[in-house]
Amino acid sequence: MRYLYKLILKILGWKVMEPPVPEPKCIILGVPHTSGWDFVISFLYYNSLGKTAYVMVKKSFFIWPLGPIVKAMGGIPVDRSRGASITLQMINEFKSRDYMHLAIAPEGTRKPTEKWKAGFHTIAKAANVPVYLGYFDWGKKEVGRGEKFEITDDVHADLKRIRKWYKDKGVIGKHPKNFTTGRDLE
């Protein structure tokens, strides 16, 4: 199947930039997140490498007939009701698995946003897993897992450094007007 995924990426004009993450557990940021197509490209990319990247999906999607499909595509059901902590759910998932490459969009939305979510940082610290700066650049049609990012205890400073990395890389979202690296970089 991985050759089929490679072929589809090639037909769509995408270039794979890096091999999969070498560690068995990690968080891969998915930036810029401006379209539902970002999931499709990242899914094709990671599966073309013979790996699975997991994503958080509302548990309401895990009903027949959609549930088995979402799970097969790497979906992990999360409970967002009554104050359930998604962060704690993901920490527990990391603890219960031998392999887990979790893809997270720190923007938290496909719309323009100045404030990125820091849940990935909390999860990475608590689960003791590395963070990679994954990207899908619609301008260059390049997709990759990016470089390993060393997180610190200073969430704000780390977010600022991460957003600067993406700004300096010059990645472009499918809908460029919906991608911002934040005011604190100006």
Written description of the protein model:
Helix 1 packs across helix 2. Strand 3, helix 3 and strand 4 form a beta-alpha-beta unit. With 186 residues, this protein is of the alpha/beta class. It has a four-stranded mixed beta sheet, with helices on one face. It contains six helices and nine strands; from the N terminus they run H-E-E-H-E-H-E-H-E-H-E-E-E-E-H. It has one domain.
Mean pLDDT: 90
Q: How many individual helices?
A: 6
The radius of gyration is 16 Å
Strand count: 9
Structural class per helix/strand content?
alpha/beta
- Binned, the helix content reads 25-40%
What is the count of distinct domains?
Answer: 1
List the topology elements.
Elements (H helix, E strand, L loop, with lengths): L1 H10 L3 E2 L8 E5 L7 H12 L6 E4 L7 H7 L2 E4 L7 H11 L3 E5 L14 H9 L3 E2 L2 E3 L4 E3 L3 E2 L5 H15 L17
Parallel strand pairs: 1-8, 2-5, 2-6, 3-4
Antiparallel strand pairs: 6-9, 7-8
Helix pairs in contact: 1-2, 4-5
Name a few traits of the molecule.
3-stranded mixed beta sheet, alpha/beta, globular, 186 residues, 6 helices
Gist?
This protein is 34% helix and 16% strand. The protein has 6 helices and 9 strands; from the N terminus they run αββαβαβαβαββββα.
